[in-house]
Amino acid sequence: MNNIVTSRTELRQLIRHRRQQLNPSQQHQAAQALAGRFSQWPELSDCQHIALYLSNDSELDTWPLIHALWQQQKNIYLPLLHPFTAGHLIFQHFLPNTPMRSNQFGIPEPDWSCPDLIPLSELDLIVTPLVAFDEQGNRLGMGGGFYDRTLAGFSARTAAGSPRLVGIAHDCQQVERIPVEAWDVPLPAICTPARFFLL
């Protein structure tokens, strides 16, 4: 294992532990603050089809944000593990009454419904999870590479392209520098409860 992989693994463990130390009250306050900050992002007005995700492993709770976006009449989509292309994600429309199931990692996802799937090119915004980030927009994920592979074709898009990419995280997940690999997809924007980083 080379040094960059070792440092990424150690950093991932460190920040996951830091995130897991947040108590329920801190988690609740952070989720509410982020939902409020994100909902006021000016670029959100141009976004109707938004991919989000359900929180796992002490990630910042996305439910307040999902409900805030529903109140703004936004269409929300959740990721599913691609059934035919290993290591990739597809996105499906998500409503309060959408049937759910657990995937192979124990993470809830919508029960497969082909008519409710949306092509990546028709999404206006994709909100990505992350373990750690830096001010340059570099993102460290859980290590599975699902978002990196799925979004690789969009890494060179300009801010005017579609879909836009934005990461969300607790403030404690910011680090000085992420060790970068060639396949990493940097994010043009990252939202935390305290601030919005625009790169």
Short summary:
This protein is an alpha/beta fold.
How many separate helices? 4
Low-confidence stretches: none
Order of helices and strands: HHEHEEEEEEEEHEEE
The helical percent reads 10-25%
Could you give the distance between the termini? Answer: 31 Å
Which secondary-structure class do the elements indicate?
alpha/beta
CATH architecture: 3-Layer(aba) Sandwich
Fourth-level CATH superfamily:
NagB/RpiA/CoA transferase-like
Mass-distribution shape: globular
Largest sheet: 8 strands, mixed
Residue fraction in strands: 15-25%
Lateral strand order in the biggest sheet: 6-3-2-1-7-10-11-12
Number of domains: 1
Could you tell me the mean pLDDT?
Answer: 89
Using DSSP, what is the number of strands? 12
Structure keywords:
199 residues, alpha/beta, Rossmann fold, eight-stranded mixed sheet, two-stranded antiparallel ribbon, 12 strands, 25% helix, globular, magnesium, NagB/RpiA_transferase-like
Task: Please describe what this structure looks like.
Keywords: ATP-binding, Ligase, Magnesium, Metal-binding, Nucleotide-binding. With 199 residues, the protein is of the alpha/beta class. The protein has a single domain (3-198), classed as Rossmann fold (3-Layer(aba) Sandwich), CATH 3.40.50. It contains four helices and twelve strands, in the order ααβαββββββββαβββ. The chain has helices at residues 3-20, 24-39, 63-71, 146-151, and strands spanning 49-51, 75-81, 89-94, 100-102, 108-110, 117-118, 125-128, 132-133, 139-140, 164-168, 189-191, 196-198. The chain has an eight-stranded mixed β-sheet. The chain has a two-stranded antiparallel sheet with strand order 4-5. Strand 11 (189-191) and strand 12 (196-198) form a beta hairpin. Helix 2 runs parallel beside helix 3 (63-71). The chain is globular.
